[in-house]
Amino acid sequence: MTVLFVCTGNTCRSPMAEALMRAELRRRGISAPVISAGLAARGEPIAHNAAAALAEWGIDAARHRARPLTRDMWEAADAVAVMTEDHRRLLLAAGVPADKLRVLADGIPDPFGGDIAVYRRCRDALQQAVCDLADELFGKKGAAE
Question: Which residue pairs from 29-35 have beta carbons closer than 8 angstroms and sit at least 24 positions apart in sequence?
Fold first, then answer.
């Protein structure tokens, strides 16, 4: 089961979601590919405050570089999680099957340019959203325990 997270620039929300999902799956003892990409990504590093908010939880995402979304990525993914309804509409128009698409938490606001408090709120919302997505895709946490 490959999970793909998509946002606009792949410098804030989607790399945070990728890192948080990887950590959540590790906690659950699940091995699955998790990647992220952006609709307008150009190789930039993760936003400083995004990396800082993750680092507060012991997650190192400093080596992340923004990747543009490709057809190969979404075709290989079993689930494509986006941050907004606009992202979902754009990907539907590009040909991503509707059954692969999920809007996280009915939408995650873009923290770009915000202070660390804005990024912490984004991280916290993404944490809940990735836990919910992990429950949906891999089964409820603790269900097999």
Answer: 30/134, 30/138, 32/1, 32/2, 32/3, 32/138, 33/1, 33/2, 33/3, 34/2, 34/3, 34/5, 35/2, 35/3, 35/4, 35/5, 35/67, 35/73, 35/77
